[in-house]
């Protein structure tokens, strides 16, 4: 259960989700209560990563004895989860009231409700995940590594491969021009034999290579977490047993690079590449890219034009504090972004709107059928995209608490066609009504039609640097 202080009803209710309680409004209410208390208790949260970097976030909680003090652990837990999936880390340094820190430690324990998060962070950083409870002043200063320029290289003959959950795309790119592209359906998350994935990826690369005189470099955009081209965690391989994953999946792209003669090879999270594609199309920086596909993918381009080494896995942090919010099928947590900004969301909302989609079809096919109803003027279908747009407006405001934003670009299958325009329109309505300063300073847009088709594959092709 969430403390009532965090459950704030929005001014604009999503038409198919009247119980939606935006995380951003709950957090605002809590921070206002802290400010009004006149006796804020400082909290300092550190997230340590295996490269030696340490990110620090400072906040405050309510003093003991305050009538809303019971909200402290819920507020801190949701904040830590957001920071963890935004920035990444194998160790949380909690500096603040010990009772709150111990509750956070319990929730991330092996038997705690956030054990999934702890296990995946351990897999990503190949360290045992832990929560260390300290005095506030004992949490050290931040150690942020400088982000290295990555992407925007389009010279020569390149292949860009975009591995989604319901289809994969490949593009042959010669000096920045797409000379061939292909989109192929697949269902990798249900396959336990990694040979299925290897054959599909290898086949797509070979097909693209046939349309160029040579291949100078290969860039890959894929759902999951990748460190130095190694697959650390990826939902595409969720059905592969862990021992098989370590033997045959972790070094999949390193092995492919060897097969291609050691040419430059660069693998990045699909959300990061979506943000890079958005930044390239806008020719600007401070871009948050949100891809609404089989789940939600996020990525961020800094003021310097670089993509980060952060995780930016926005599918897992909560955007809805409603204690009865939908449950994420992988993590088991409620209110996660992936349940609101994805084709899963569209299908779930279609049912609430009274639309019976064919459950024997793939999620991508069901979404296409829903979009077809929208094109025919079906008001029930419109409510689905109105609802996604409404929740997206509050979601963007939530993300703006953690990113310095100038642009938000929405991408992915869900924003194709008229539905994308409805989502953007409703997002802007929410920002104007609830967050006018944000509405004036942050643009929300869709990529051009051509960029929607091949933009991410081209951005992936631009990842490797060729000497």
Beta-strand percent range:
15-25%
Span of the ends, CA to CA: 55 Å
* Spatial sequence of strands, sheet with the most strands: 7-6-5-8-11
Corresponding CATH superfamily of the largest domain:
ATPase, nucleotide binding domain
How many beta strands in the DSSP annotation?
15
CATH class of the largest domain: Alpha Beta
Main sheet attributes: strand count, strand direction, barrel closure = 5 strands, mixed
Rg over alpha carbons: 22 Å
Write the element-wise H/E pattern from the N-terminal end onward: HEEHEHHEEEEHEEEHHEHEEHHHEHHEH
Using the alpha-carbon principal axes, give the shape.
globular
Helical content band:
25-40%
Low-confidence spans: none
Number of helices: 14
Determine the structural class based on helices, strands and strand pairing: alpha/beta
Architecture (CATH level 2) name of the largest domain? 2-Layer Sandwich
How many structural units, i.e. domains? 3
Please name the CATH topology of the largest domain: Nucleotidyltransferase, domain 5
Explain what the structure shows.
The protein has 467 residues and is of the alpha/beta class. It has 3 domains: 100 residues, no CATH class; 116 residues, ATPase, nucleotide binding domain (Nucleotidyltransferase, domain 5), CATH 3.30.420.40; 177 residues, Nucleotidyltransferase, domain 5 (2-Layer Sandwich), CATH 3.30.420.40. The chain has 14 helices and 15 strands. The protein has a 5-stranded mixed β-sheet with strand order 7-6-5-8-11. A 4-stranded mixed β-sheet has the order 2-1-3-4. β5 and β6 form a beta hairpin. α10 crosses α11 and α11 crosses α12. The longest helix is centred in the C-terminal third of the chain and has 22 residues. It is globular, with a radius of gyration of 22 Å. The N and C termini lie far apart (55 Å). The mean pLDDT is 94.
């Amino acid at each position: 259960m969430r403390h009532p202080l965090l459950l704030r009803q929005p001014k604009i209710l999503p038409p198919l989700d009247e119980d939606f309680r935006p995380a951003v409004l709950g957090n605002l209410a809590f921070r206002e209560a802290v400010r009004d208390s006149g006796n804020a208790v400082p909290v300092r949260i550190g997230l340590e990563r295996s490269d030696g970097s340490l990110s620090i976030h400072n906040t405050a909680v309510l003093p003991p004895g305050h009538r809303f003090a019971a909200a402290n652990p819920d507020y801190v837990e949701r904040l830590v989860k957001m920071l963890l999936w935004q920035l990444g880390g194998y160790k949380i340094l909690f500096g603040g009231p010990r009772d709150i820190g111990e509750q956070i430690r319990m929730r991330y324990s092996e038997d705690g409700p956030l054990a999934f998060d702890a296990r995946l962070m351990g897999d990503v950083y190949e360290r045992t995940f832990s929560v260390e409870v300290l005095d506030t002043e004992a949490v050290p200063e931040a150690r942020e590594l400088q982000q290295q320029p990555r992407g925007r290289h389009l010279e020569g003959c390149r292949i860009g491969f975009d591995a989604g959950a319901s289809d994969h795309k490949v593009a042959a790119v010669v000096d920045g021009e797409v000379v061939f592209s292909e989109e192929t359906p697949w269902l990798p998350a249900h396959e336990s034999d990694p040979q299925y994935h290897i054959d599909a990826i290898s086949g797509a690369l070979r097909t693209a290579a046939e349309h160029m005189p040579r291949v100078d470099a290969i860039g890959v955009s894929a759902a999951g977490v990748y460190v130095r081209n190694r697959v650390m965690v990826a939902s595409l391989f969720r059905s592969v047993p862990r021992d098989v994953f370590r033997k045959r999946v972790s070094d999949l792209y390193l092995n492919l690079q060897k097969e291609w003669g050691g040419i430059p090879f660069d693998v990045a999270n699909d959300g990061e590449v979506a943000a890079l594609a958005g930044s390239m199309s806008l020719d600007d920086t401070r871009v948050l890219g949100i891809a609404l596909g089989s789940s939600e993918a996020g990525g961020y381009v800094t003021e310097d034009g670089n993509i980060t080494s952060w995780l930016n896995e926005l599918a897992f942090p909560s955007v809805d504090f409603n204690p009865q919010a939908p449950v994420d099928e992988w993590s088991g947590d409620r209110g996660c972004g992936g349940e609101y900004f994805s084709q899963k969301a569209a299908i779930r909302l279609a049912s609430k709107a009274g639309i019976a989609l064919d459950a024997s079809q793939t999620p991508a096919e069901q979404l296409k059928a829903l979009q077809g109803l929208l094109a025919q003027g079906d008001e029930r279908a419109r409510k689905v995209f109105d609802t996604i747009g409404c929740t997206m407006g509050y979601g963007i405001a939530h993300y703006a608490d953690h990113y310095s934003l100038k642009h938000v670009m929405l991408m992915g299958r869900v924003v194709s066609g008229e539905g994308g325009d409805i989502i953007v329109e409703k997002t802007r309505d929410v920002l104007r009504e609830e967050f006018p300063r944000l509405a004036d300073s942050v643009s929300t847009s869709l990529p051009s039609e051509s960029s929607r088709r091949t933009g991410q594959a081209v951005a992936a092709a631009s990842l490797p640097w060729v000497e």
